[in-house]
């Protein structure tokens, strides 16, 4: 069981310098807290800085203004306390499932027995027992993403970051894995932050949904999702929250489609 982390994002701004162009303001005064064990989703249009913010949290970029704190300490560089799962599973094709998961434990300092136990436990957690010796090409897309989640959790991080982890999957597999992620989150107790374009996915999984807008990237609404699990996508309260978030993004699904030009 992971020890859940407390994340504090304090007045974070980020700019990029592009050749021959003025500075691009990607994030502007972004701030919110993520309580230990919470599931928070960040949504917003392309270019609003969602994935940039994840890069700062994971520690891949420290050139920003403001503070990002994990359990009261400023994040500096990457560390085993923060795991990440990307849209592409990024499994190494020449390694088996258990070897791919074992890569995340290379710098853990654990004994061989502890590593083997963690690999076994997390393969079981994501429902892939029996596929330990399988290579990535022998796994379906959904299975490969579950393997990536197992790899992200195997060293028991305090926080797991999910960067559009289901974006490349077909609709049916995506819905199934949303339920799996919700189950895994409850089983592990880890703090999770998800970035997605899918508002329904955000409402299905999260305690809170942070809505961002672009140019520059900033928070426009922070929505509490106080619905019991398992969640019913057809329930009136679920639909109302989805509409509220879409409206905050400027994409209210109730707007009629524009008429086609004659």
Molecular structure report:
The protein folds into two domains: 1-81 and 159-249, Rossmann fold (3-Layer(aba) Sandwich), CATH 3.40.50.300; 87-156, no CATH class. The longest helix is centred in the last third of the chain and has 18 residues, at 171-188. It has helices spanning 50-58, 97-103, 112-125, 141-153, 171-188, 199-205, 236-248; strands at residues 7-16, 24-34, 39-43, 65-70, 73-74, 82-85, 159-163, 191-195, 208-213, 218-224. Helix 2 packs parallel to helix 4, helix 3 crosses helix 4 (141-153) and helix 4 runs parallel beside helix 5 (171-188). Strand 9 and strand 10 form a beta hairpin. By secondary structure, the protein is α/β, with parallel strands linked by helices. The radius of gyration is 19 Å and the shape is globular. It is built from seven helices and ten strands. It has a six-stranded mixed sheet, sandwiched between helices. It has a four-stranded antiparallel sheet with strand order 2-1-4-5, with helices on one face. The relative contact order is 0.18.
């Amino acid at each position: 069981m992971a020890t859940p982390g407390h994340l504090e994002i304090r007045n974070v701004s980020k700019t990029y310098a592009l050749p021959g162009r003025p500075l691009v303001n990607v994030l502007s005064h972004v701030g919110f807290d993520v309580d230990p064990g919470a599931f928070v989703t960040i949504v917003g249009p392309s270019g609003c800085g969602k994935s940039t913010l994840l890069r700062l949290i994971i520690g891949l970029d420290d050139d920003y203004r403001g503070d990002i704190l994990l359990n009261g300490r400023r994040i500096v560089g990457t560390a085993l306390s923060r795991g990440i799962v990307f849209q592409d599973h990024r499994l190494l094709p020449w390694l088996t499932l258990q070897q791919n998961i074992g890569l995340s434990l290379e710098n853990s300092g654990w004994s061989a027995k502890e590593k083997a136990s963690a690999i076994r436990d997390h393969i079981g957690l994501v429902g892939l027992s029996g596929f330990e010796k399988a290579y990535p090409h022998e796994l379906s897309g959904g299975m490969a993403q579950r393997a990536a989640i197992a790899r992200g959790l195997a060293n028991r991080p305090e926080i797991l970051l999910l960067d559009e982890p289901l974006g490349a999957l077909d609709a049916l597999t995506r819905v199934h894995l949303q339920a799996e992620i919700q189950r895994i989150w409850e089983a592990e107790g880890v703090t999770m932050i998800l970035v997605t374009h899918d508002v329904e996915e955000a409402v299905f999984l999260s305690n809170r949904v942070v809505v961002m807008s672009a140019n520059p990237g900033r928070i426009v609404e922070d929505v509490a999702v106080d619905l019991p699990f398992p969640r019913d996508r057809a329930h009136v309260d679920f639909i109302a929250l989805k509409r509220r978030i879409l409206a905050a993004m400027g994409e209210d699904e109730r707007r009629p489609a524009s008429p086609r030009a004659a």
